[in-house]
Design brief:
heterotrimer, A mainly alpha (552), B mainly alpha (498), C mainly alpha (473), B: two-stranded antiparallel ribbon, 2 strands, 73% helix, C: 473 residues
């Protein structure tokens, strides 16, 4: 019986959506419950569900730690954000539309995690991507429309590329499309390129991030939280699932990918510093963190032998970033709308510090676990750069906190309602509590409690604090030219839209001279009609003469 | 005459006879007309269901009547014809309901429904046709029966469209006639058979066979709207919405595509196609049409015209699948026959609903329409996303099989065509969806439909919801035996053994 | 043979009676046509298995005798003539506006008799006599339309006389050369020398002029379109087929094979051009009946094409196609002319544009027009389609003959264009209020009958086609 729980995981949000359409506003308060089956599945871990009657090879569910962890944090994040949104979108005139898209995106997100085959994954992926558009453009202002347009253009492009990649992969597998087969199957160049770009556009690591810093800040806060916290990870998960464990091509590509991830982590942090809104800074931070995840993937492809350790690192990092980023985005929303008590600021600092790599937090533990593996591998010499990236992340998050603090000045003087701060506090505290609650985190945390480890984690953070302090003291501001920088991608997106509405196709039209032809025709008809008799006689005579010649 | 031989005839007659009776009815005999229509539909549904069961059990249904020397009129039910017959029947059912609601108070309903039934009879006859001569007969009948529907409004614009329609289709019909006559002169007109019947002639009459193929494909290509023969389709949009829906989903464009399937697989056969090197040009033509149709669709500012060009593009998926000559691709092509029908009919119903309820014809008038007509807009979204190929809607299944089929036979470039077309589809459908749901509404939203139970006439709403649901369901349940995909696989297993 | 003679003499006697005594006109004409029809059916029944019957008039043996022959083909044509006459007579009795006066009845009977005699004749002079009689009766019928038809009737008369003269000249040359007039005896003796060539040329030209075969068709559109509807129907459906029959006899029975092979492409070329020129003219003319008349010119092109190619390739299938064209065209054209007359009379205008909205006001008549038109275009399953199918088969068998098939394609497209030109007007709803018309139901359905018969041909097509191939050999 519990096998059917897998079916309920993605279907619960859809059922909730049906309920929403039927009962309208009354059920909004309880919509967060749609995440419960997922949590139940994490807890119960039933055997996978074989859906061969729907299509051969379709399987939902997974017992492995990665799936469960991913599903768990996704459900927690969506659930908390759902409770938050029920309160924060209360006054929204178009809240029904918001919730429809919310639930559809949730269903897609859950489905792609529980999918054990590419078709279900793709179904969840596209459902999530397209529905997320509804969340991004929900505010309806020009900025949201622009960002949404770019998002949608790239999402559709990414989906198409992904589909092509999946088809090629399925073809290589002889028509099979379950991930377990694919994990054993070597990949070829075009397929890899298609999958990397297709899924990378969703994951938003450099250089495929262009839509992310624009789209995430414009959405309502809970939507940004799930966009950044949960949905981005779909790309990484997809890459992990669809590509083989041990493949020479991937191993050869690991180094450039690692470099790209590292560069992305630094570059995004730099650009993020120039942003002037807290949510934009957080979005850039997501780009930077996706660079980290890409690095983990690259390491895993380079060192297939250490896969177990790296998959743990991936899992830890994913969970950590999802929860922490979700908490921060919710906080960014709250600081805009209400005044937080000072104790809350302490709580707010937690996810930020966790992202910066504070020891004993989720982030510190995940980073420590990653560094341990890294140290063993072929790229040990790059470790200082990693610390640099850690510094960059730290300073970026400090900036985000600073901007939130500034936001408080403008916020209306009221306390946030409990329906908002409770889920938020849950997410914040998880950054610190999770290492103690979750065995998978507890072990690496305890392993890396040595002084050297702690120092390695702490010094970039401390350095960042010092640097931030200096910056604040000196009153450094972002130069205006950098702050006012617009993403060139927006311009391109607009031009693409214009091109699409007016494609340069020539219209073929003929303009015959109707009157002239008519005149000629009349003259011709007149000629023949005038004297049927004589003409016939002449014709006969002519033919007779010809016949005479022929006969003679 | 046993029942197996009379059943195909009965299926054709079940719409023909009510149609002929309807012609004689007076305008005001509304109830009788509706009864006749629905009785015909119901009877046809029952008969088709019986035949479906029979064919899946391996029975053969064949009716024959002497006609030309060596070429009798043959109606036969095989798996392929039943795919099309079932599609026509289901969509006829939906469209009849829709048309009853759509034309509730307009003049000349008897004439309309008469020709409507005639049109469906021709389509079904064409699907059941057992040899080329029979096919030709119903092909021409279809041309004649659809013309009055296209010009039904009788306005100068619709007459112009009707003339263009006739010019194209009669021209195409003549080409088909020549092709059929040429093949008859070469090989007689035996029944369609899997693998074709021309293998013996490939050696000595190769050039003639090529010419015959060109004639047939060009002739059928007019109805299948292959470029450069597609010009009539966007113009024919002036017809009333149920007609456009039926023209686009089943009656006309599909018959062309279905004919191409028949010619390629049951007349020539894959081997002869390969020996004569005929598949490649057809493939290129289909690919070019797919991209061209989508590009043209982008340019249109009128909703129905955009949908029309989208049809140009989408119908060629079928031809593409057929021309790839691989089992998976054929499954993709065949299943698209049904899938595209469902989705396109949904879109046209929606366009009709918008036009009928709010007078919305142009794309920029669609702003915020989702708030006023949420159900219709949802159905429209389903259809549009399905056209793009978003799972789990039917279109995705077709695209997956077409792509896999192309890879299977080593034509990887086709994948690019499919993706390019999907991107273009997205480029011209998503703005509509955006307008419907997200754009700022125009002022007519002030009068919402508080007084009414539904957003529009329930007879207009019912078919929309039905076909939209069907397009999602056939996608989700594609893996089951009763879905179009299951049936297409059966056809490929049974008819094209490789 | 006696039945065939009855079929010939009944209209002759009826015509004479009508001229002399003028009894109840319509009734007598109807009775005569009915008797003739029954007799023709009996005659066809006698010879349907392919036998041939001869009658030596006066009991003299050839070469002195005047012979009448009854072949399956002539029996079929007898039946066809009588049937169409009966139908037109019924229609004319019901709709007096379509005949232009009481003189129609004797003239129609004489026309019928002349045609019947023509189908039965087997020697050149006898054929000349029937041809002359036919021409005169036809001219007189055209003149029934009154003042406006005078000029066309006169043209017709003069050209008809010229045609007869040319034919007679040819007959004289042949008689001078061979000393016999019997077709079959001539056929045995004829050689391809200069007098024979000249005679054949003269006779062919004369017959083409009388049969309005392109390019000597110039009199036809004016004559046929100005005549009363029933007369136009008879002229287009039957009268022009008489000279065609003689032409066929000449070139397949009399002319030496080598001459026939040489002349075939010329005739076929003329036929192909007739298809195009006639079709184009029909497409462009603003008048409804003129459109139908030009369509006759075009459709005769098919027959001429079939005849020419049959001569050139000595192919019996094409001769069968020729006769099928004749029958299908006759039936369809009767319907079409009567429908055109009905439309013109009811809607009160000669132009094609007056048909706007006719599909609402006169649905049955419009349907008749379309049905007949569909057969003229040659869409399945009509008789026109059968004929075209039969014509196409030999054309398509060899790639080097495909040029002729192209002509057929173009002809088909042209005919579709002019038929649908009318149809499209019928669906115009420019005038929302249709004029108050009360169509005559019986007349309407009667005009539909021959058009339906053309489609009925499809039902017996499988047996009829081989039979026709057999009998026209």
């Amino acid at each position: 019986m519990s096998v059917w729980l897998w079916l309920l995981v993605p279907l619960a949000p859809l059922l909730a959506a049906a309920l929403l359409v039927w009962c309208r506003e009354r059920v909004i308060g309880g919509l967060w419950l749609a995440c419960l089956p997922a949590l139940l599945a994490v807890w119960q871990a039933p055997a996978p569900l074989d859906l061969a009657w729907v299509g051969e090879g379709i399987r939902w569910g997974g017992e492995d730690a990665l799936t469960r962890a991913w599903l768990g944090f996704t459900a927690v994040l969506w659930g908390s954000a759902g409770v938050f949104a029920a309160s924060s979108q209360r006054e929204d005139a178009r809240r029904l539309r918001f919730w429809c898209f919310w639930l559809l995106a949730l269903a897609g997100n859950l489905l792609l995690i529980v999918a054990a085959d590419a078709l279900s994954f793709y179904l969840g992926f596209s459902l999530m991507s397209l529905s997320a558009y509804g969340l991004i453009v929900h505010p309806g202002n020009a900025e949201a429309r622009r960002a949404g347009r770019l998002y949608l253009q790239l999402a559709v492009l990414g989906e198409m590329l992904l589909l092509a990649g999946l088809m090629l992969r399925s073809h290589a597998a002889g028509g099979a499309f379950d991930f377990s087969t694919w994990r054993e199957l070597p990949v070829d160049g075009p397929t890899l390129a298609l999958l990397l770009v297709g899924l990378g556009l969703k994951a938003g690591f450099w250089p495929l991030h262009v839509w992310l810093p624009l789209a995430h800040p414009v959405a309502p806060a809970p939507a940004s939280a799930v966009l950044s916290g949960a949905m981005l990870k779909a790309g990484i998960l997809g890459l992990w699932r669809a590509l083989p464990q041990d493949d020479p091509l991937l191993a050869a590509l690991a180094q450039p990918l690692l470099a790209a991830g590292l560069f992305g982590a630094l570059y995004a942090a730099l650009l993020g510093l120039c942003a002037s809104r807290s949510k934009a800074v957080l979005a850039w931070s997501s780009v930077s963190q996706m660079g980290w995840l890409l690095m983990i993937l690259a390491l895993a492809w380079r060192h297939p032998a250490q896969e177990m350790l790296l998959v743990t690192a991936l899992m830890l990092f994913g969970v950590h970033h999802g929860l922490a980023k979700g908490a921060l985005f919710l906080a960014a929303g709250m600081t805009h709308e209400a005044r937080l008590p000072n104790a809350a600021w302490l709580l707010l600092a937690l996810p930020a510090l966790a992202l910066a790599g504070l020891p004993l937090s989720t982030g510190g533990t995940a980073k420590a676990a990653l560094k341990a593996v890294w140290y063993e591998g072929a790229f040990a010499a790059w470790l200082p750069l990693l610390s640099l990236a850690g510094f960059a992340t730290s300073i970026l998050l400090l900036r985000a906190l600073w901007l939130m603090r500034l936001d408080q000045g403008q916020a209306p003087k009221r306390r946030p309602p409990p329906a908002q701060w409770l889920p938020w506090a849950l997410l914040c505290s998880l950054s610190l509590l999770l290492p103690w609650l979750w065995p998978a985190l507890r072990r690496p945390m305890l392993e890396h409690l040595g002084l050297a480890d702690l120092w390695a984690l702490l010094w970039p953070l401390l350095l960042a604090v010092v640097a931030a302090e200096i910056a604040v003291r000196r009153g450094w501001r972002v130069p205006r030219r950098l702050a006012g920088m617009r993403s060139p991608a927006l311009g391109l997106s607009l031009r693409l839209k214009r091109l699409c509405t007016r494609p340069p196709l020539p219209e073929l039209t003929l303009h015959p001279d109707r009157a002239g032809w008519r005149r000629r025709e009349r003259r011709w008809n007149h000629l023949w009609r005038r004297d049927a008799l004589a003409l016939s006689a002449w014709l006969m005579a002519l033919v007779l003469c010809l016949g005479w010649v022929w006969g003679g | 005459m046993s029942w197996t031989s009379l059943l195909p005839l009965a299926i054709v007659l079940s719409s023909l006879v009510p149609g002929l009776i309807i012609f004689t009815l007076r305008e005001e005999q509304q109830r009788l007309r509706v009864t006749l229509n629905l009785a015909g539909v119901a009877l046809k549904v029952v008969l088709v269901a019986a035949m479906l069961i029979g064919v899946s059990d391996g029975l053969t249904f064949r009716f024959s009547l002497p006609f030309l020397p060596g070429a009798p009129l043959v109606l036969q039910g095989d798996a392929l014809s039943l795919l099309f017959v079932t599609l026509s029947t289901v969509l006829w059912l939906a469209t009849t309901v829709y048309a009853i609601g759509y034309l509730e108070d307009s003049p000349l309903r008897s004439r309309f429904f008469g020709y409507f039934s005639l049109c469906v009879s021709a389509t079904v006859g064409l699907a059941l046709a057992g040899n080329l001569v029979t096919f030709l007969l119903f092909y021409e009948l279809l041309t004649l029966a659809t013309f009055p529907l296209v010009v039904h409004r009788g306005t100068p614009e619709s007459l112009r469209a009707g003339r263009v329609y006739l010019a194209y289709t009669v021209g195409g019909g003549t080409l088909v006639l020549m092709g059929v006559a040429l093949l008859h002169a070469l090989a007689g007109s035996p029944d369609f058979q899997p693998g074709g019947y021309l293998d013996g002639l490939v050696e000595e009459r190769g050039p003639s066979l090529r010419v015959a193929f060109a004639l047939l494909v060009l002739g059928l290509g007019v109805k299948a709207a292959l470029i450069p023969l597609h010009g009539w389709l966007p113009k024919a949009m002036v017809a009333p919405a149920p007609v456009s829906a039926l023209l686009h989903a089943v009656a006309v464009v599909k018959t062309g595509a279905f004919g191409i399937v028949r010619v390629v697989y049951d007349v020539y056969g894959a081997e002869a196609m390969e020996a004569l090197a005929l598949a490649r040009p057809l493939l290129w033509l289909a690919a070019a049409t797919i991209l061209f149709g989508s590009l043209r669709a982008l340019q249109q500012s009128e909703l129905k015209r955009r949908l029309a060009y989208s049809t140009v593009s989408q119908v060629s998926y079928i031809t593409l699948g057929v021309a790839l000559l691989g089992p998976l691709a054929v499954v993709g092509g065949l299943v698209h026959l049904a899938h595209q029908g469902l989705m396109k009919v949904t879109l046209f119903y929606c366009a009709g609903n918008f036009a009928e309820t709010l007078g919305v014809h142009r794309i920029r008038e669609m702003n915020g329409i989702g708030r006023r007509m949420p159900l219709t807009m949802t159905a429209f979204t389903v259809g549009a996303l399905g056209m793009i190929g978003v799972p789990p809607i039917a279109g995705f299944i077709s695209k997956w099989y077409l792509g896999s089929g192309a890879l299977e036979v080593g034509q990887d470039w086709v994948l690019l065509v499919l993706l390019g077309s999907a991107l273009l589809n997205a480029a011209y459908f998503l703005p509509l969806v955006w307008r419907g749901w997200f754009a700022t509404p125009a002022d007519w939203h002030a009068d919402n439909w508080a007084g009414e139970r539904w957003e529009t006439h329930w007879l207009l709403l019912l078919p929309v919801v039905f076909t939209a649901l069907a397009s999602v369901l056939v996608g989700i349940l594609a893996g089951t035996a009763i879905s179009p995909l299951g049936w297409a696989r059966l056809i490929v297993d049974r008819e094209f053994p490789r | 043979m006696n039945a065939a003679l009855l079929s010939l003499f009944a209209p002759l006697a009826g015509g004479l009676l009508l001229v002399l005594w003028r009894p109840a006109r319509a009734g007598l004409a109807l009775g005569v046509a009915l008797v003739s029809l029954l007799a023709a059916a009996a005659a066809l029944h006698q010879v349907a298995d392919g036998t041939r019957q001869w009658l030596e008039v006066g009991g003299w043996a050839p070469p002195l005798a005047i012979r009448l022959q009854l072949t399956p083909l002539s029996a079929l044509l007898l039946l066809f003539t009588a049937g169409l006459h009966l139908l037109v007579a019924v229609y004319a009795a019901r709709r007096p506006h379509a005949i232009g006066g009481a003189d129609f009845w004797p003239l129609a009977c004489l026309l019928h008799a002349a045609l019947a005699a023509l189908w039965l004749s087997a020697d050149l002079f006898n054929l000349y006599v029937t041809l002359e009689l036919l021409g005169l009766a036809a001219v007189a019928l055209v003149a029934l339309a009154g003042e406006k038809a005078q000029r066309p009737a006169l043209d017709y008369l003069l050209l008809s006389l010229a045609g007869s003269l040319a034919y007679l000249l040819g007959v004289a040359i042949l008689y001078g050369r061979y000393g016999v007039l019997d077709l079959f005896l001539l056929g045995e003796q004829a050689t391809a020398d200069a007098p024979t060539r000249l005679a054949l040329l003269l006779m062919t030209l004369g017959l083409m002029l009388k049969g309005a075969l392109w390019p000597l068709h110039l009199w036809l559109p004016a004559a046929h379109s100005s005549a009363p509807a029933a007369v136009s129907a008879l002229l287009s459906a039957l009268v022009v087929k008489g000279p065609l029959y003689i032409l066929w006899l000449l070139w397949t029975r009399l002319a030496p094979t080598e001459l026939a092979v040489q002349a075939g492409p010329l005739l076929a070329g003329a036929g192909a051009l007739a298809l195009l020129a006639g079709g184009w003219a029909a497409l462009r003319t603003p008048l409804l009946k003129s459109l139908v008349a030009y369509s006759t010119v075009a459709q005769l092109g098919y027959a001429l094409l079939a005849l020419g190619l049959a001569m050139h390739w000595q192919e019996p299938r094409l001769e069968a196609a020729l006769w099928l064209f004749v029958v299908a065209h006759g039936l369809a054209k009767v319907s079409m002319f009567l429908a055109a007359g009905e439309l013109q009379h009811t809607l009160g205008g000669k132009r094609v544009v007056t048909l706007k909205g006719a599909s609402q006001t006169l649905p049955v008549t419009m349907f008749t027009f379309v049905t007949a038109g569909v057969s003229l275009i040659g869409l399945p399953p009509s008789g026109g389609f059968l004929a075209k199918w039969l014509l196409l088969q030999p054309l398509l068998e060899r790639p080097q003959h495909w040029g002729w098939a192209l002509a057929v394609v173009l002809g088909t497209l042209m005919s579709a264009a002019y038929v649908f030109r009318v149809v499209a007007h019928g669906f115009d709803r420019a005038r929302p209020q249709p004029p108050q018309v009360r169509p005559d139901r019986f007349g309407q359905w009667l005009t539909l009958l021959p058009a339906l018969l053309v489609f009925g041909l499809a039902l017996i097509g499988e047996r009829m086609l081989p039979w026709l191939e057999g009998v026209s050999r």
